[in-house]
């Protein structure tokens, strides 16, 4: 009753083939219809077409990541009511096609954020890194966000200034590109002007208001998800704290508790992402998993090293600051508990999240973090750890 091993696949232009994925020891694909514009309905035809393609290649599909939430819904402006209706239709169509788990996020404007998507390690591999001073340099001196200096200490502002002064035009362009023009993991692109407009829409939206908007969304969506047999599972903020003055509402245990209890339902659940939550030293991951275990419908496993200056960097899956042994042990115990209860969903889908770009993959192009060999190495390590834990508990 091990976790279900899944693999995120970005569609036909993904450089990782179905054959690679099967050889990695994976049974299920996690994917999204990224060609459908944000806010529009995912039609049954489109969903079926993707499903057939996956099944014809010997794999299965029952988790989607993500069905994106239109900015109008997050800000409750413009066409948000229509977009919520469209979202409901997508959920119904997904449920009817056997796609029963829907991962989504409620981060304003930007999904996950890094300042360097090609950070070279001594051994030649590359990883993803977030450097606070680089980010501050962008915020203060490239974006020139109004009142941005209030979000940093005096020392940080002066380090960011030094950092900025050393950047040449190409450096500025690539920092901007990685932060706004080419948001990692999505096909959304903003120009600087569009990005500033997007930020402006949040001027009067604080944490409290954004939480209200999420609660409203959930109160509309969850009853539909219940009927369709779909489990919604929100992805945490990455990084798990406010950036660019934007509110963030899925960063801590209390945040998760708020949103899960705003609409009590087994269909209102969580994607437990150790990499995102793990960037905060005050997030005790094994404890958090246990607190919400009942409603964890999807798991992302990876780890980061963080320092005390606000920087973090993605580590090997068993390295870094995440106590992966304790997390997986709690997952194994939860799965067993569900099995004893007779729950059908006792095996929780997981995917190895991100991975180094390494070996033969260094010459290829991938969505940042989503190379083949690095993720496969992560999957192998995590599977071995899970196997050992199950064995020691006499559960396999
Ligand atoms: C990053 C991913 C996120 C995630 C979305 C879910 O690697 O985990 O982009 O897919 O936040 O909506």
Structure report:
This protein has two domains: 297 residues, Divalent-metal-dependent TIM barrel enzymes (TIM Barrel, Alpha-Beta Barrel); 84 residues, no CATH class. With 396 residues, the chain is of the alpha/beta class. Helix 5 crosses helix 6 and helix 12 runs parallel beside helix 13. An eight-stranded parallel barrel has the order 1-2-3-4-7-8-9-12, surrounded by four helices. A four-stranded antiparallel sheet has the order 5-6-11-10. The protein contains 14 helices and twelve strands. Bound molecules: D-mannose.
Strand fraction equals 5-15%
Q: CATH superfamily assignment of the largest domain?
A: Divalent-metal-dependent TIM barrel enzymes
Order of helices and strands: EHEHEHHEEEHHHHHEHEHHEEEHEH
Strands ordered across the widest β-sheet? 1-2-3-4-7-8-9-12
Compact overview of the structure:
The chain has 396 residues and is α/β, with parallel strands linked by helices. Helices cover 42% and strands 14% of the residues.
Task: Tell me the layout of helices and strands.
Layout: E1 4-8, H1 18-23, E2 28-31, H2 44-56, E3 60-65, H3 71-75, H4 80-96, E4 101-105, E5 116-120, E6 126-130, H5 132-142, H6 154-165, H7 169-181, H8 192-200, H9 207-228, E7 231-235, H10 253-262, E8 268-273, H11 274-277, H12 285-292, E9 296-301, E10 304-306, E11 312-314, H13 324-341, E12 349-352, H14 373-392
Parallel strand pairs: 1-2, 1-12, 2-3, 3-4, 4-7, 7-8, 8-9, 9-12
Antiparallel strand pairs: 5-6, 6-11, 10-11
